[in-house]
Amino acid sequence: MSPFSLQLAGSLLPLVAIASGVSLCANQTSLCQQVDCQLPGRVSYSGSSAYISSQSNYYTGNERDLEPGCVFRPTKTSDVSHFVKLVAASNSTSTPEFAFRCGGHSFFAGAANIDGGVTVDLRSLDLFELSADQKTASVGGGSIWSENVYPNLEPHNLTVAGGRITGVGVGGFVTGGGLNFLERRNGFACDNIYGYEVVLGTGEVVYASADSNRDLWLALKGGSNNFGIVTRFDLVTHSQGLMLGGSIDFNVTQTVLDDHAKAFSSWMDVQNFDPLAVMEVNFVWDDGAWSLADAIYYLAPDLNPSVYEEFFSIPNQIENNLALKNVTAIVEESAELVPSTVSRAIQMNYSFKNGNASIYSQLFQTFVDAVDSISDVEGLVLDFLMQPHPVTNGTNSLGLSPNVTDRVLVDIGAAYNNAADDDTIDAAVQGIFDHHVQILQDAGLFLNFTYLNYAGANQDPIGTYGDLATLQGVSKKYDPHGIFQTAVPGLFKLFT
Ligand SMILES: Cc1cc2nc3c(=O)[nH]c(=O)nc-3n(C[C@H](O)[C@H](O)[C@H](O)COP(=O)(O)OP(=O)(O)OC[C@H]3O[C@@H](n4cnc5c(N)ncnc54)[C@H](O)[C@@H]3O)c2cc1C
Ligand SMILES: *[C@@H]1O[C@H](CO)[C@@H](O)[C@H](O)[C@H]1NC(C)=O
Ligand SMILES: *[C@@H]1O[C@H](CO)[C@@H](O)[C@H](O)[C@H]1NC(C)=O
Ligand SMILES: *[C@@H]1O[C@H](CO)[C@@H](O)[C@H](O)[C@H]1NC(C)=O
Ligand SMILES: *[C@@H]1O[C@H](CO)[C@@H](O)[C@H](O)[C@H]1NC(C)=O
Ligand SMILES: *[C@@H]1O[C@H](CO)[C@@H](O)[C@H](O)[C@H]1NC(C)=O
Ligand SMILES: *[C@@H]1O[C@H](CO)[C@@H](O)[C@H](O)[C@H]1NC(C)=O
Ligand SMILES: *[C@@H]1O[C@H](CO)[C@@H](O)[C@H](O)[C@H]1NC(C)=O
Ligand SMILES: *[C@@H]1O[C@H](CO)[C@@H](O)[C@H](O)[C@H]1NC(C)=O
Ligand SMILES: *[C@@H]1O[C@H](CO)[C@@H](O)[C@H](O)[C@H]1NC(C)=O
Ligand SMILES: *[C@@H]1O[C@H](CO)[C@@H](O)[C@H](O)[C@H]1NC(C)=O
Questions:
Q1: Residues 247-263: pLDDT tens digits?
Q2: 180 Cβ inside 6 Å of ligand 9
Q3: This prediction's pTM
Q4: Which family does it belong to (predicted)?
């Protein structure tokens, strides 16, 4: 008898057909009812506070607008396993579909929420445990970096490769790659995972690490939600005391743009590589005005790292709040650089090899020109976000060469008020994207790599990793019935 039948036998529920090791309650036709029957108290419906807590917590209105039939909030790994078994068992009677969420910070509708099905809200899986040797931090698959990861590490002068803005979840961030403060020295967040506890499509719980289920371990490093639900991440810790962090805001003029084109090109030059330095240039049209802010981070307690000299000397600075801070404080401050939540949003991204200043000037100019045609869209915030690629060690599924330091990643993001403007904005962002890609292709600098966590619904990031066949093989091996391909429609799938 399966543990589930044992557990349920005592609850005097009418049980029927035993399938895939799980008994179904009789007379419960929907997946929501079935889960509610078997895991009482964990399922909430429209209007209840647990349902609203999930719905209201997504970053974009695109996700908030979907209405799941119910929200299931597991508190332990076995709840997640039980749930997936129910999904598998229910297949014969209906087409159950579900989505699962962590921090809810992915942009587009359906990535981590679903209309009519079950949304699994993982946020109660918020374990934090530091190993005795302090080399590993084990965190639950529903953890939020700023809430239950950084604050627990800081007292030990430790940190991990994680999110840089409050509210971002561990689950989506790490399975999609993860741009982080340590990335130029330690790579993507996914490069810094010793192991994953995963609930597979069969409901089986397995551990994936360098030594066990290695193929799954690699697939999860960039393969997103395609292989299972990660219920625990074992993260590599790094010592970290105070670091330099903050931003410099500029009054935008042509000179400021030209100076940034020069300074960024030179900052990205392999000769100037400094593994402790990471930065972002945020060039933004914000509801009627231009702004430009450089977010600057340096992993040592150094107020004046020479790698930033050229940026520090650009004139027209309005505000500079660079100081030595702890990671928690920097993450909280960085939240001020972006809206805390947005009504409608899309984004697209691309990567390229560093070029000369003229390349960057062309990218800026094209962006400025494009805003002219959409500047009257209500609430428009259009962001050109430019940052270096993490320097990966290559042990992941992203298909990027190890130790390469001169790669740049651009994210073009748009936020605005009304769904009625969706088509206009889609076209404008696509237009900027196409134009930029053209400039970079002409210069021989374009890289065919799409960062999944900044990818648009119409993009195919996993296709750009270069080895889809391997990931498809891992999916067939660990998820033979394709639960995470068919029953979980959200985000980027492996089979089309
Ligand atoms: C304000 C803001 C700041 C950001 N900052 C950064 C940044 O600094 N660096 C960066 O790289 N990206 C950043 N991003 C992008 C971010 O990494 C992605 O949106 C990421 O998906 C967010 O993870 P989440 O858990 O919050 O997302 P969710 O929307 O909850 O989930 C995203 C996807 O991951 C899957 N997923 C969630 N949990 C799990 C799990 N436990 N196991 C398996 N799959 C899971 C979900 O099914 C879903 O498909 C930022 C986004 C925003 C809005
Ligand atoms: C379950 O059965 C009861 C009667 O035994 C019936 O009243 C009820 O409508 C049924 N519920 C569902 C969801 O079928
Ligand atoms: C981090 O910095 C903030 C702001 O300076 C401070 O309030 C907090 O106590 C610091 N946290 C730790 C663990 O040192
Ligand atoms: C953390 O670093 C600070 C500053 O170097 C030091 O005073 C403190 O004792 C350290 N804490 C631990 C737990 O090592
Ligand atoms: C990359 O880092 C991970 C995590 O520390 C490690 O397991 C892996 O062996 C490293 N790969 C290489 C090529 O060093
Ligand atoms: C920004 O530049 C404009 C035009 O040069 C100038 O009028 C304005 O005073 C500047 N604002 C600040 C805060 O420096
Ligand atoms: C990458 O750099 C590390 C550290 O310098 C080195 O140990 C490793 O061999 C390099 N890997 C490759 C593939 O060049
Ligand atoms: C800048 O790079 C482009 C493309 O690589 C090249 O065509 C152009 O001549 C370069 N410009 C300068 C000023 O070096
Ligand atoms: C990121 O870029 C790739 C192509 O470069 C694209 O397919 C994908 O949709 C983009 N992501 C977003 C969010 O736009
Ligand atoms: C990027 O690579 C994918 C997969 O190899 C391919 O389908 C696509 O056409 C490429 N795109 C460009 C712009 O080269
Ligand atoms: C569900 O049933 C359909 C039709 O019988 C089948 O094609 C599909 O593979 C099944 N899916 C799962 C997850 O078992």
A1: 999 999 999 999 999 99
A2: no
A3: 0.89
A4: Belongs to the oxygen-dependent FAD-linked oxidoreductase family.
